[in-house]
Amino acid sequence: MSNIYRRSGANKAPCSDPMPLFIDGVYHVIHLSPPWDSLGTVVPEIRSKDTQRHISSTDLVHWKVHEPALYPGEPGEVDEDGCWTGSLVRKRDDGVFYLYYCAFDHDAENPQKICLATSEDGEHFVKRPEFPILRPAEYLEQIDYRDSYVFWNEDEGIYWMILAARYESGGPFHRKGVITYRTSEDLWNWSEDHVLYAPWYMVCPECPEMFKMGDWWYLCYSHFDQNAKTTYRISKSCHGPWRVPSLPGFDGRRFYAARTLTDGNRRFQWGNIYEREGLNNESRWTYAGDMAMVHELIQREDGSLTVKVPQEIVDSFGRDVEHEFVTMMGEFKADGNNMTVDATSGFAYGFFKEESEDALMLSAKVTLKDGNGAFGILLKSTEDLSPSWELIFEPARSRVSITRYPVALDPFWEGLNPKIKDAPMEVDGPRTIERPLHIEKGKEIDLKCFVDDSFVECFVNEEVALSFRIYDPTDGAPIYKFGLFSEDDTVEIRDIHLREESDL
Fold first, then answer.
1. DSSP assignment string, 54-83
2. Strand ordering across the sheet containing 177-184
3. Which of 143, 201, 320, 410 has the greatest number of C-beta atoms within 10 Å?
4. What is the pTM of this model?
5. C-alpha angle 459/374/474, rounded to 5°?
6. How would you list the strands of the sheet with 97-104, edge to edge?
7. Can you identify the CATH homologous superfamily of domain 16-315?
8. pLDDT for 1 beyond 50
9. How far apart are CA 498 and CA 320, in angstroms?
10. Looking at residue 371, what DSSP letter applies?
11. Domain edges within the chain
C-alpha cells in the first residue's frame, strides 16, 4: 500500500484535475473522477462523466477519503454529463465554502457553464440551482468555457474568477485559447468576462490558476497538445503583462492540470498523470489516470519557480531495502554506499537487484568528472535494455530527460536489418520528457527517483521534476526498477540508498 495518494473509491476509479485548499491545518484536495469502469478507455462520452471526490491530509502522507463532494446530475439537469473542474474557496465573512464547477451537458447549446455548490462544513455540499449560471460572453466560443478558479485578489480587494475559454473568431483556429476573468464582491453576483491572457499559441489553456508569492503574480495553466503539460507566466501585476520566466514549466509532458495551495509558509502542487488506452506503453493517452506525487514549489530571485519533493514524502521512505548491484557491462567499483564507474570512450551499465513489492526511492549524489559525456538512471528496464527508459543527464546539451530505448528505426533501415528487434514508436517520441538543467563539471547532482507500480517520478537538485507512467512489458519480461549507466564519462556516485515506504 503506497503512502502516495493515487486514486480513491471502492473501485479505485481514475482521477484528474486536483482542486486543493488548505483549511485550518488540513490539506484538502477535491478531484475529478471518471466512472470506475472506464479504465483504459478513450471514449469521451464514457470517460468524461465525472464525479468530484474529496480527500484530506494533515501530513501529505496519510490521506482520509471523504464522501464525494458532487455527483453528475439526473437526466435533464444542467450537469447530467458530468461535474467538471472548478475550485473551492471559503468566503471571508461567514466561512461558507463555495465549490464552483463546470456543469457539462453534451446536448446543450452551451455544453459547458459554471455552476455552484456550497457547504457549511467543507465536507457536505449542496448544489445551488438558483445560482445565476455563468455562460461565455458573445465574443467567446460557446463550447469551451470551464475550469473556474476563484480566489481573493489581495491587490484588488475583490474576488476573482479566472476561466479557460476560446475566442469565437479571429486568428488561427488552433491558437484561439484565452484566459478570462470575472470579479465579485459576494461570490454570488459576478461581472462579465474580461480578457486576462491571450497569447495566440494554444488550443485552450485548461485548469488556469493565479496566486501571488512575494512581489510576483503567477498565472498557471495546462494545454492539451502533444506536449500536454502544465506551465506558467509571471508578472508584477495581476493584470499582466505576463512574461515567460527563466525556467518555464513545473515538470514534463503528461504532468497535467496541476493546481497549488499554500499553508502560509510553503506552496504545494498537485497534478495528475494520465492513463493509456489498454494500459500499455504503445497506446495513445486518455483523459484522467492517477494523482502524481505532490510537488513543493521554490521561488527564485528572478521570480521563476523550481520544484522539489517535500521532505514529508522523503521521510516516509524510511526502510532500507536489501539489494545487490549486478554489473552487466563495464566496470563499477563499489565502496559501501559509494560507487565509481569509468566509461571513458565506452558504455557501462548495471542494475540494483531487489525483491521489494512496495514503492521504492533511489537517492544518490552524482558527479560527472569529464563533464562532456552522459550519465543516467535506468528506470523499469529489461536486462538487455530492450526496452529501457533512461533518466539521462547530458551536460553538453544542458538538459535532463527521460528517454526510451531502443528508438524505432526508419522503415528503410528496419527492412535492411531484419535481425534487429522491432522497436515500436513511442507516442510521445523517444525523448518523452525533457527539462533544461545546467550541469557543471565536478559539481554534485542531488537525485531522488521513485518507482511506484507504473509511475516513475524523479527530482533533481530541488530544481527539476520529471514524472511519467511506464507500464510493465506486455510479454512478461522481467524488469529492474533501477539501474545505473554511463556513456563516455567517469562518474562518482555517493550516498546511494534504496528505500521503501515505512509503516508510518
1. EEEESSSSS-EEPPPSB-PPPTTSTTTT-E
2. 140-153, 158-167, 177-184, 194-197
3. 143
4. 0.94
5. 65
6. 83-90, 97-104, 112-119, 126-127
7. Glycosyl hydrolase domain; family 43 (2.115.10.20)
8. no
9. 6
10. S
11. 16-315, 318-500
Rounded Cα distance between 103 and 110, Å, is: 10
Q: Read off the pLDDT of residues 461-504 as tens digits, 9 standing for 90 and up.
A: 999 999 999 999 878 888 999 999 999 999 999 999 999 998 75
Q: pLDDT per residue over 229-267, tens digit each?
A: 899 999 999 999 999 999 888 998 889 999 999 999 999
100 neighbors 116 (Cβ within 8 angstroms): yes
Q: Which CATH superfamily is domain 318-500 in?
A: Exo-inulinase; domain 1 (2.60.120.560)
The three three-digit cell numbers of residue 345, written as one number: 570512450
Dihedral sign for Cα atoms in the order 236, 240, 246, 247: positive
Length of the chain: 504
**pLDDT for residue 117 is more than 90:** yes
Query: What is the spatial distance between Cα 475 and Cα 282, in angstroms, rounded to a whole number?
Result: 13
Q: What is the pLDDT of residues 271-330, one digit of tens each?
A: 999 888 888 888 888 888 899 999 999 999 999 999 999 999 999 999 999 999 999 999
> Which sign does the torsion angle of CA 400, 402, 406, 410 carry?
negative
* Nearest one of 159, 149, 160, 114 to 257, comparing CA atoms: 149
Residue 141, SS3 per DSSP:
strand
Helix H or strand E segment including 47: helix 44-47
Query: Given strand 206-213, what is the order of strands in its sheet?
Result: 206-213, 216-223, 229-235
Residues contacting residue 95 through CB under 8 Å, at least 6 positions apart? none
The one-letter amino acid at 223 = H
